[in-house]
């Protein structure tokens, strides 16, 4: 019984071999090569070509990098951190500011539920996150009654 050849060997043998350029007729089209065959040649060509020189007199513009965390995701991440640390569900986002190193977010939390709701005790937490959404710091900045929000600034 003949030995079964591995698939890779069969594939290599089935590919038609191109004749050297010298032997080819000028009218004969060049055989189609797959991408793996062309990549080394293209890479060599790119390495040989010199990079265009840029004008050194004009300063290079700083690249504006896109923040790793967008505002909506930063607010959600801050709310999750506050809920995990305080055990209370966030009521809402009161402020959001992009900083040099990340985000500063204000999260409002119901500290104590009362009846009627207008007498609930609310607190605002200021949360600082880095660019990846990790907690840098948090602190409670205010505590107030829901019905007396006019004292807030």
Shape: elongated
- Report the end-to-end length measured between terminal Cα atoms: 90 Å
- Percent helix range: 10-25%
Quaternary arrangement of the chains shown?
Answer: single chain
How many strands, which pairing sense, and closed or not: the largest β-sheet?
Answer: 4 strands, antiparallel
Mean pLDDT: 77
Q: How many helix segments?
A: 3
Provide the spatial order of strands within the biggest beta sheet: 1-2-3-4
In terms of per-residue confidence, which ranges show pLDDT below 50 for 5 or more consecutive residues?
A: none
Draw up the topology in text.
Layout: H1 7-14, H2 35-48, H3 71-86, E1 90-98, E2 102-112, E3 121-130, E4 135-145
Explain this structure:
Strand 3 and strand 4 form a beta hairpin. The longest helix is centred in the middle third of the chain and has 16 residues. With 153 residues, the chain is α+β, with helices and mostly antiparallel strands. Strands 1-2-3-4 form a 4-stranded antiparallel beta sheet. It is built from 3 helices and 4 strands, in the order H-H-H-E-E-E-E. The radius of gyration is 33 Å and the shape is elongated. The model has no long low-confidence stretch (mean pLDDT 77).
